[in-house]
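[agent] plan:
  1. take the single chain provided in the ticket
  2. run structure prediction with default settings
  3. attach structure tokens to the ticket
  4. add a short note for the reviewer (M.T.)
[agent] executing step 1
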Amino acid sequence: MAAPLPPSVPNFLIAATRKSSGKTTVSLGLVRAFVNRGLTTATFKKGPDYIDPLWLQLASGQPCYNLDFNTQSEAEILATFSRHSRHADPSTDLVIIETNKGLFDGVDPRGSDSNARMASVLKAPIILVIDTIGITRGIAPLLHGYSTFDPDINISGVILNKTGSSRHENKLRKAIEYYSDIPVLGSIDRDEDLVITERHLGLTTPGEKSTAEPLIEQLAQTIEQCIDMEKLLKIAASPGHVSPATPQTIEPSDQPDITIAIARDEAFGFYYPDDMEAFSQCGARLEFFSPIHDSQLPKADGLFIGGGFPETHMKELEANQPMRAQIKTAIEAGLPTYAECGGLMYLSRSIEWSGKTAQMIGAIPGECKMHQKPQGRGFARLQNTANHPWPGNNTNLVETISPAHEFHYASIENL
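[agent] step 2 finished; step 3 output follows
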């Protein structure tokens, strides 16, 4: 008889009525506040985002994993959730899932890939963060609409964000209490010191901000003062949560038989923890290096350069001529190389941004140009052919349709 699955770990999902409502700062503050209380807190991010998980990882002290309808089936989402919550660490006390955009937003107009659907699949109670700038009694019909639009979800609490004064907060609370039975868990005043800077790909990364750790601690202190943490823990532990699915596992290799060099520093940091773990489980030794700071490319059987912000560090990348020369020589000698997003930009001849140009590796015979507007945004469907380097177990594979996420401001020109 199979061993019984552990009970579902207490959890809740942080959502908002729209993007830029402050749910990331609220999520970071909550995660760190619970960690400071001694609770082992696991985190997930809905969608393919790289940057928010870096912040959540810093706040929790452990990897943040992505859950995404466009690249995973619902069964895979449940398995990922199970594998990286209590299955990964039986001592996990709490799981916090941060959403993207608004609660009902998504590509599918029927909502099959929305945050609300994620809450429904995970049976997670929803904590709704509402940006209250410019609204008072109107919060009541807004909350009524959000709580009744989808009968499969449960909005279990509201956090009022960016309130202007105690008078403003009082009006909001009275309206909600009169027209709704959804509890207000707390209110956070407007404070520019509690904002994470945004730019063309979203938030700045924590590795680029020397103030990241102090900011997270400040957010945690604010949350402790402003939010009813005990009530929130009761909501997280309420009955009816998802029972963990049996996680899909890969038996780890006893001895690594290949080495993969992975670029990771201020310029390159967009990696999914799942990919790193899959490499290791399949028998790869991971050797991280910095294209900015290191002068030697590690000896490796393969090279992986992920995304990031090479355009904001292009002078430093250009200045490291030994690294650029070694990477180009290795690629031309046949080193298997995978590069995406910023990594692909780095492999081009040059990067042009804000009227300045810097020389890059030149393994790709084209120039990279940054634009003011996105050049690709959304999800693409890729058709694999017989020449695809990773056909899986089917050696006779001719075509398979695979989803891929794209969000980039750059184009490669003059190929």
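[agent] step 4 note for reviewer: Confidence is low (pLDDT under 50) at residues 1-6, 393-399.
[agent] ticket updated
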